[in-house]
Amino acid sequence: MTARLSDLRRVDLDELNAQAELQTRVDRKYILPSGALPPVLDELPAGTAVLEIADRRALRYESRYFDTPALDSFHGAAHGRRRRFKVRARTYVDSGGSFLEVKTRGGRSATVKERVPVLRDELDEDGIAYATELLTDAGIPRAPWLARHLDPVLVTRYRRVTLLLPAAGTTSDASRGTIDLELEWIDVDGRLLSLPGSVIVETKSGQRAGALDRALWRQGHRPSTLSKYGTGLAALRPHLPSNRWRRVLDRHFAGAEASVPPTPTRSAA
Length: 269
Prior knowledge:
This protein is α+β, with helices and mostly antiparallel strands. The protein is 25% helix and 33% strand.
């Protein structure tokens, strides 16, 4: 974590949510070399704060993504379908708690996310019922069948810094942004892909771009078509369709190779 982040005012989770609770929002994602981050941070406005929990500002996250055997969620993202969905169990490693999150996207660029606590990786009957309800409400075709056939497919791990950015004027609201470091993707067969030299910045605001977007733009960075689940799975499984993320894969994932887990040895009888 850079010195610029450590110098920012701390904010707790209650204040963050009170000032910038954006469950329905517009997300913009950027991926850039970690060395390009300090100049962006220098562009942030006065009053920018960073979430701190238990004296930590770079908090560990783990997300387990669920999909069907035919990868309906992945293909919905890969082909940019108007109505698509994502289901994951997110664990807040440092602050505690795991939640099942169902994200759906309609014809506009707003994301609607709902979540409930979960106690294990596989979906139990309550999780299946919850996913069925939200997918049905979003108009996802075959929602009950999809929810019933969701299995773990991919795990992502990273450290996240969360920023609270002040409103730019009387007509705008405070916004939030996240910076994800130490990026890792783990396939179900145990293969690990990491990008230690890259960071993913995500801005979360209303329809208008926030202060973090403008800081990124001034440094020459533009939003990327990027999905941690979709892009990561396409990088690990090159046979999958990846045109939607080809620019990001070619620029940031080129040369990154997944490590293969060692073959277990048999003990002598």
